[in-house]
Write a structure and sequence with these properties.
Blueprint lengths: L4 E2 L5 H6 L5 E6 L4 H16 L5 E6 L4 H6 L7 E6 L2 E7 L4 H12 L1
Parallel strand pairs: 1-3, 2-3
Antiparallel strand pairs: 2-4, 4-5
C-alpha cells in the first residue's frame, strides 16, 4: 500500500508548504461516496508517482478548519502544490485522466 501522509492543521505547513516534492492533497470525508470511490485510485497513483510527488490526505470531518483555511468548499477536492504554492485544483466530478494530467504538469 502506498504511503499517504495524513494532514492536520499541525503538520500541513511542514508537509505541504515546505515539501521538496510537488504535493497532491486529497480532501475527503467518510460520508463522501465519490471520495471513498477515489481512495483506491489515489493509493495506486501514489505508488506510481512515488519519489516524484508526495501524496497527502485530509479528513475534512476531523479537520474542518483546515479545509476552510485553504478554501476547500466541496468534496472531493484535490489540490496540487509546487514549492509551497497552490498551482491547480480539481473538485466535483473527475477521474484518473484529469488527476494524471495535473500530476504530469506538476512534475513537468
Amino acid at each position: 500500500m502506498a504511503n499517504l501522509t495524513e494532514l492536520t492543521k499541525e503538520n500541513f505547513e511542514q508537509e505541504v508548504f515546505q515539501s521538496d516534492l510537488p504535493v497532491l492533497v486529497d480532501f475527503w470525508g467518510p460520508k463522501c461516496v465519490p471520495c471513498m470511490g477515489l481512495m483506491p485510485l489515489v493509493e495506486e497513483l501514489a505508488a506510481k508517482y512515488a519519489g516524484k510527488v508526495k501524496f497527502c490526505k485530509v479528513n475534512t470531518t476531523e479537520n474542518r478548519r483546515l479545509a476552510i483555511q485553504v478554501k476547500v468548499m466541496s468534496l472531493p477536492t484535490f489540490q496540487f502544490y509546487n514549492k509551497g504554492e497552490l498551482v491547480a485544483e480539481l473538485n466535483g466530478q473527475f477521474g484518473q485522466t484529469e488527476i494524471e494530467e495535473k500530476l504530469n504538469a506538476l512534475i513537468g
